[in-house]
Design brief:
Distance between the termini: 12 Å
Number of helices: 7
CATH topology: Rossmann fold
Strand content: 5-15%
Number of strands: 5
Radius of gyration: 14 Å
Largest sheet: 5 strands, parallel
Number of domains: 1
Amino acid sequence: MRVFLDVNIFMDVLERRRGWKASLAAIQLVRNREIEGYVSALTPPIIYFLRARYADENRAREDTRRALKEFRIVPLTEEIILKSYEESRIDDFEDCIQFHSALNTADVFITRNIRDFTAVMNEIAVMIPEEFLKERRERF
């Protein structure tokens, strides 16, 4: 199974936000190589930027590197950018980039902000971490 994780899943864990344990469990499935994990090329700089607000340069870089261990990074191509410019079903441009990065890469798009992607759920399965983990347990 191939999953694409939105940047907010990593931020759940790094900031111990509500639901962080389910987000960590999804990340651990990738780290343990039980599933294939993908992220957008936007994800490393976003994680770094958000961590650098609270940590020094070296810590922010190390946190970013560790957070993304075992994940494959989907290149940010001209095609993804152009499709994201034209995407009218998703309001936020960064969300458009996340969606188009996931679309031809993964079977499931895991995000904390599922409501932002309701208009595109017919193109890729979109789930919150808790839903993904429950469905995975039921299948296996």
